[in-house]
Amino acid sequence: MGNASDEVSAPKGAAKQDKRVVVVEDDPIVGKALGTLLKKEGYDPVVFSGGWPALTYLREHELRAALIDIHLPDISGLDLSHVIRQLHGDNVPIIILSGDTELDTLRSLSDAGATYFFSKPVNTTKLLEHLKSYPSMA
User: Fold this and answer.
1) At what angle do helices 51-58 and 77-88 cross, to 10 degrees?
2) Is the pLDDT at 16 greater than 90, yes or no?
3) First-last CA distance in the chain
4) DSSP conformation class of 97
5) Beta-strand (E) ranges in 5-138?
6) Do residues 94 and 68 touch, judged by C-beta distance below 8 A?
7) What's the pLDDT band for 14 if we cut at 50, 70, 90?
8) Residues 77, 58: contact at Cβ < 8 Å?
9) Exposure winner among 7, 92, 103, 105, fewest CB in 10 A?
């Protein structure tokens, strides 16, 4: 995973494109599971294993939400969140998923533009409920 040919995406129907969710997760099992879960729920997931390939994609594509791991192999998920916020504005939910619950990390989430944090392992039911709570994702 990690480049455009490794994207996991649903068929490009108009309704699905309106619910494009970018997932950036370096664990391929977790990334694939999140992609499958989102697809089953009617979203259009695009999964990357690294931040730089995701940024390349995000410079040319719209999204409705992002799920981002903090510790990526090539760029901090917090830095990635900050750039996504600059590229796509304040209305895009950026949800951080991480096992890192250090106080310094949690304090830096809002500075990075993150809208919510889920500790790993993620409760997928609560993640989906939270995602659906955003007007752009309903």
Assistant:
1) 0
2) no
3) 29
4) E
5) 20-24, 44-48, 65-69, 94-98, 116-119
6) yes
7) very low
8) no
9) 103
